[in-house]
Amino acid sequence: MRRLGSVQQKIPCVFLTEVRNEPSRKRDCQQFQVVATENVHPAALQSDVHCAVATEKIDGTCCYVTTYRGEPCLWARLDRKPTKQADKRFKKYQYSQKTCKGFVWDVDKDFREVPESWIAAHRVQHENGQPVPDEHGHIPGWVPVDQTNKQYCWHASVVNYDAGVALVLKTHEEDEGLLEIVSVPLADLMEQTLELIGTNINGNPYGLGSKKHPVHVLVPHGVLRIRNPPPVEFQQLYSWFQECQEGRVEGIVWHCDDGTLVKIHRHHLGLKWPVGDPFLNTRPVVIHVDETPDPDASEKDLFKSFSSINGKLFSCIRDIPFEP
């Protein structure tokens, strides 16, 4: 089974889109929304999207595994964004020109500072050694997850750097209908991107853990295949999201043979997300975490918690009990 595409940039919609002057269903305070038309994007057609692998789009925050100071490390997504003043100029230009093309940035002055350890994402264009912002005025990038940095405490909860492992949710190798939570060597995840989901991420649409005992896991991108994907056609996709149990997902990401990624989000079709009973919560899950817990670890240490229920099977990830 080939490894599917790494998510380093914003993924375009599989359909051509248009902007409507009505409040966004996805972002509060945004007075417009981007919706799909019925026309498949020419780039998707060129990449033969009809033969692509369809996978579930997971609602979390993007992460990346690569080296830091010579060791495998989890990195958190951190886009370098414009200062308030530069952003005002950018939006004024967009409003007057009806496009963002042609706007000139001064990267040294127009963008907020980032930590020294920050790196630009793959395929970010550079000019004169400086990264160039994308069409949204952002420079996608990453920062290493330091277990002492409270800003990334939920990222840090899913890695144990001393043992060199991470907590991963994936499809069971022998049963496609079964999920498993496993401890995976970080070295085995090198150069992959993953989605961090859980109690304190994006409103917790999958219902993991609780305030008293937060639970987070990493989901490698492309690991949750859609077994009976609908054709890439507007009405059939709309019906699939509305009527099929497997369609109770945030969206679909198609992985084309040439490496191109395209997606559809429920919001592109005017549909609600999150939904009350997402498809991820219809699949049983088995725990395979047998790390020797640190005797000094907190009772809320996830590796310790999962080790205590190693080998057990649950009806879904939401039903994993951690309360004392």
Automatic annotation (TrEMBL):
Functions as an RNA ligase, in vitro. The ligation reaction entails three nucleotidyl transfer steps. In the first step, the RNA ligase reacts with ATP in the absence of nucleic acid to form a covalent ligase-AMP intermediate and release pyrophosphate. In step 2, the ligase-AMP binds to the nucleic acid and transfers the adenylate to the 5'-PO4 terminus to form an adenylylated intermediate. In step 3, the RNA ligase directs the attack of the 3'-OH on the 5'-phosphoanhydride linkage, resulting in a repaired 3'-5' phosphodiester and release of AMP. Pfam families: RLIG1. Keywords: ATP-binding, Ligase, Nucleotide-binding, RNA repair. Its cofactor is Mg(2+); Mn(2+). InterPro entries: RLIG1. It comes from the Eukaryota. It comes from Carassius auratus. GO terms for biological process: response to reactive oxygen species; RNA repair. This is RNA ligase 1. One of its GO terms (molecular function) is RNA ligase (ATP) activity.
